[in-house]
Amino acid sequence: MPPKQMGTVWEADPHTLAKIEILSGYLDAWFRVLGATRRGQPLLYVDGFAGPGEYRNPALGSPLAALVAASRARAELGPRWVAGDVHCVFIEPDADRRTNLQQCLAAAGSARGIKVAVLASEFEAGMREVVRRMPVFFTQQYPLFVFIDPFGASDVPFSLVAEVLRSPCSEVLINLDADGAARIFGAKGAADHERLLDRLFGDRSWATTLDHHQPFSAQCRAVLRLYTERLRSVGVGYVYPFEMQGRTGTLNYYLVFASKHPLGLEKMKEAMRQIDGSGAYRFSDARVHQPTLLRFDDPEAYADELFAQFCGTTAGYAALRAFALNQTPFTNPKKMLARLERDDRLAVLGAPATRRKGTFGQPDGWRFVFRSPAP
């Protein structure tokens, strides 16, 4: 939870506003796609660290941003909305901030088909209460999205994240304080590092992964890599981070998205690209309003990585899409495949005879042969 000295309502830093923009952009897509396809099924959104609902800037807090996205999706879909009710649960332990949040929610009003609950609880206890009240979202094919935005590196146990992600249709967006985790690791016993890192990662894997001899920046990246691996270990196929930097241009935290469906990551990367169109998936308070001059999404460079991964094999499009989503700035592999086919490093089987070389309109069912280099 935020430090008490910040008061009930505080001014949001640029990276906080960018974070809410990413969340809002994704929820716009999430509510629309699921609202139009999940006939009769309710949707559940949980904000685990809800806060006061607003900032001094002024700007909407994440709870209000979620309600706006849900209301907009229902209004714009109209009769095409086939899902059930939207349930929004906001967890906030601080009494003053919770009161402020409830006032903001009351002022925003309620829309038909959107049900709101505010829980007076710490995150862990609050999530346990959500599971108790709404067990179907954690056991059945009901859409569930949890936004986890703590202020501390060890505020959220991995065991609870894993429990959420065991649900067949669950997704999470997590604020991973890799900087804070690396500092806990460096402080050793003075910070009770073993207990806190066990809690963060859910096991002892950090003990053989993090290295005191590495530069601090490398330790932060190692925290991200390990956390990503831990998410994949519980059956999550699609994970991607967005880096948030502070006013000095150094790492503040990573926003890490985890989903079991490729469309989820595709839509999240689209929302992230609205904040950073360079392909770096990075936002810095130090560069607010400055134009981006460098590009980080050249298909030529990533085509080589794709080829190295699949060289000498024949793959279906689903595997190539998963690689593009998880390992590159792109939402699909088509630009990389076009480069490889142009260079005669790729053959395409099963495509229509009318297909033009370098085009990949509807590639499901096609086979892609990655030619081994000549000896």
Describe it for me?
- This protein is of the alpha/beta class.
- It folds into two domains: 4-287, Rossmann fold, CATH 3.40.50; 299-370.
- The chain contains 13 helices and 13 strands.
- The strands form three sheets. It has an eight-stranded mixed β-sheet with strand order 5-4-1-6-7-9-8-10, with helices on both faces. Strands 11-13-12 form a three-stranded antiparallel β-sheet. The protein has a two-stranded antiparallel ribbon with strand order 2-3.
- Strand 8 (238-245) and strand 9 form a beta hairpin.
- The longest helix is centred in the first third of the chain and has 24 residues, at 14-37.
- It starts with 13 loop residues before the first helix and ends in a 5-residue tail after the last strand.
- The model has no long low-confidence stretch (mean pLDDT 94).
